[in-house]
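not sure who needs this but someone in the group chat was asking about microtubule-severing ATPase from Aureococcus anophagefferens so here u go. i didnt clean anything up, its just raw.
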Amino acid sequence: LDELKQFKVALALYEDGLATLLGCLKQERDAAKKAQLAQKFEEYLARAEQLKASLGARAPDHHAYGARVAAPPRPPPAPSAAAPAARPAQTPVAPEAPSPHEAQILAEMLDASPGVGWSDVKGLEGAKRTLKEAVVLPYLRPDLYKGLRSPPKGVLLFGPPGTGKTLLAECVASESRFAFFALSASALTSKWLGEGEKLVKALFKVARDRAPSVVFLDEVDSLLSRRGDGDHEASRRLKTEFLVHLDGLGGGGRVLFMGATNRPWDLDDAFLRRVPRRVLIPLPDGAARRAFLDALLDGEDGARTSLDAARREKVVAATEGYSMSDLRALAEEAAMGPLRAL
């Protein structure tokens, strides 16, 4: 249709194709295929912008509708010496198409809210209060969070696995309504030399362009571990590039970095300096385990189990040292018991 000069129909198809490509980018995990999709996304976007600009500047074709062609307007009178000449109209500049690296980062962006609220996180009141102070409240009342109250540019969530660190990050995405980028170390690494640094640069550029935004990196120790003599040159350069961009977040750009790790002692000292707010996510206490167990057993559909309050207290007492994921696995295994007895 583009070659047949049916530009309006072609533009609509290009827009549908861009939406389809963006969905494929979010689902694709293979780096090579993701790069190909990102390149195709860039080509489609550039052509769609060209068509949109040409259609917007083109006069309507009256012959196509059988209407009479209007007479051309009279030229304006020449400006006199007393009246200054009118400035020529400036042509609107089309938005710059994202690079393939930026398109790959945009594929990791959470467009839809995960639908997790603060009430869904059982316990962890200190962690929730810290995240509210660092993310939500400064956005709602920026006039109060200035000077010594300025929000931190980095927050590190650390603690045993399965305690709810990623769930807290999803909660921040839902409650703050910021642009939220959830990444892992594999999203910022590449087998090609120099590609990792370009991805890191694209990540922070896209985050600044869409500020206020939150960049969440899970298992941050796999990317920003302590540097040593045995590090590969590419790994060292990637860490340096990340730290340089992370150090530049303090300029009031409203970009917050959040990292989660189970091994905080393996993190690089330079990275720890750049995340002044560090929040321990401990194993749940008895009250948190009871609240989480009630939510699991009662279910979202209102179906309740025959486990009364006394038996639930016994389960809570017997699960000292369990994480939230351990409790979920225990409840799922117990739910299979009646089916196995049939």
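also The longest helix spans residues 31-57. if thats useful
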